[in-house]
Amino acid sequence: MSSTEGRVRVAVLISGAGSNMAALIDACQAADALYEVVLVVSNDPEAGGLAVARSKGVATVAIDHKPFGKDRAAHEADIQAELEAASVEVIALAGYMRLLTPFLVNRWEGRMLNIHPSLLPKYPGLDTHARALEAGDAEAGCTVHLVTEGVDEGPILDQQAVPIVAGDTPRTLAQRVLTAEHGLYPRALASFCARIRNL
Question: Which residues does the annotation mark as catalytic?
Fold first, then answer.
């Protein structure tokens, strides 16, 4: 990779395979990339995405949420310490499957992004593809938005529509939306980083 001086330092939070995380890392390999993924954090030490990130040369840390019980803020305090140690400027949630508390959300207000598999404000929360099919929608898609205390309620940064075709199931639709996510998220993150750098 060429010099990363001046790039926005991004941490990606994951809970699983991390395919969106991998797309973000791959995109920042470009010589003119506006951000650099400097850390990948998971709440699950067994998350497959951790090995993927390491294979791409990105530092990783696993902070298992289980020992913290119901004390989500204490778990997030340990995450915050890792973010500070890595001089992170922006957080990208990529399949992070825990609801964040005000402890972390408020500290990163305006600097934490998430990708959601629907065209928000339609279908916040879970089962988005089944809900779109049940409603008879002509299209589904994905949204990158800023994270606020409300679930999937933050300001929308960018969206990508995906047509629903005859015979679609939640599984087939999810696969096509995920492919769209891999293009949308790096683009939206780059645009966001350009804005905060006033480029």
Answer: 116
